[in-house]
């Protein structure tokens, strides 16, 4: 009993933070898609879109970072696919 490993708490903690990470990735993906749609709409309306384009690039960088972190940690989503190509 003295030398028993305490892996149960570690696994529960990792699973909890993995779930939080997946939620953040999904939220960032939705924000990035919305920013892309806004940028497209404003470019079509011939509005000066430098600020909108910068915000879109920032959201893309945030999503890419979170996605790569989830991939590095080998976190798997049970729900919908996290990343879909823009060819859809």
Give a short summary of the structure:
69% of the residues lie in helices and 0% in strands. It is mostly helical and 88 residues long. It comes from Fructobacillus fructosus.
Mean pLDDT: 77
Low-confidence parts, pLDDT < 50 over ≥5 residues? none
Structural class: mainly alpha
Distance between the termini: 56 Å
Instruction: Work out the helix count.
Output: 2
Work out the oligomeric state of the chains in this entry. Answer: single chain
Strand count, sense and barrel status of the largest sheet are: none
Q: What percent strand?
A: under 5%
- The count of domains is 1
How many strands in all? 0
Shape: rod-shaped
Chart the SSEs and their pairings.
Elements: H1 7-44, H2 50-72
Helix pairs in contact: 1-2
Protein name: DUF2508 family protein
Organism: Fructobacillus fructosus
InterPro entries: DUF2508
